[in-house]
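Onboarding guide, step 5: your first structure request.
Type a short instruction followed by the sequence, for example:

Predict the 3D structure of this protein.
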Amino acid sequence: MTVGAETTGQYGPSSVHVGRRSTATVRQPILAILLLLCGFTAVQRFTLDPANSLICVLPYSLFLFYLVQQNFRTALSCLILSLVFSVDNGGGAYTETPAPLRYVIYLSGIGMMICLSRRQIHEKALLLAAFLVSGLIIGTLLSISDAAAVFDSATLRRDVQALFILSIFLFVRGDVRLDPFVLFAGGVGYVAGEAVNAVLFYDFGSFDYLSYDSLKAFAVFPALYAITYRHSHMAQLALMVITFLLISLYGSRMITLSAIGLVSVALVISSIRAGKWKIYLAAATIFIMLANVDVVALLKSEPLVRVKALSFIAVIFESFDSSEIMQMFMTLDRVRFAEHQLFFSRHPLELIFGSGLGSGVVDTQGLLGFLAYEQTAFSTEEIRTSIYFNLHDFWIDYGLRFGLLPVVYLIYILSIREMWRGRPWIGVLFGILLLNTTFATSGLVLTSMIVRFFPRERVG
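The system replies with structure tokens like these:
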């Protein structure tokens, strides 16, 4: 009798399965410790630069070893960790992993997704692909008809990469899944190493980035794993506190905001699925009723005005209007605010279907005119010409070229739908990676591999 590939991650005669499975079990603690040390060392950019940028070679070697052994489950996990441990952005301050080595890892990941897929097309996925292509054609035609349309070959290459990787999902995935525990072991080392960096080397008064790497959002994985697989409450709390500290020091507002937002959505959906929907219905009813009440007049009434706390709330309500909300958003992040102004100033059809592959947006109003060359992620050419191709947030970056409709659907199907299916923390993980890593090739490969191979059993 042949042991299922989902269980062992291997293929072949049953006798070979048993032998290799027992060997893998014996080696698992050693592998976990080794990957934990790799994760810890890989982020020591303050003390081991440039050696830390080459640590990814070790998990990649383990990937090749387990691949030869036909232990695809462990091989995939080691390959993902080699991707996470590589350095694709040093911010001009730290050594990056050599490009040839990084692209070998990228191509290996794409190759594994292709090879481990079945030669069977998803009918629903094919319909969605046809819809996406139709939208792209409409967006491209709209862009061509606009004399002010702009185009960038580098952006086109990234869009083609994204489409190629998405095309893999047209095929039914095979039986092989990655091993979450192996990722957890490497992830704990990664988080522990970054915690050491934060405590010993980070200058809290500098407002600098703790890490510039494109895949730093992976730091949320150990905490989500601990919650999903019900580790001790102490371990969950410790990992959550350390993770929140790290993502705060990473300097990326979107990682922090997306983590808080997606966790909140997951908790609400889990409560509704558990039969607590009446609480949210009551809260929504109260909110609608209060929306029709003059709250300021009520709080200023004679019986309540004498209550100091309530009179203070009345002042807040009285001085609060929509223009101040917009001012608050602009104060929080002036660059992102201006990007959204640019994005939504386009034709409604372009908002829905996009402006076509490789397209950008021209800042004719000077909304980003305050940018300085040395203080932004935009290229010198973009700032000089006021033509922008790389926007900060996922929905406006990809939405600029592919349209908001497919972008919103992708967020739903990868994140929200997982939550509705009883896998809230997997939905949080997929959502955080999608929103915070896919601006880079490394992030496209990482997110696609985790979505493709992560086990979907309902846990926790």
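Each response can be followed by summary notes, for example: Residues 1-27, 303-312 have pLDDT under 50 and may be disordered.
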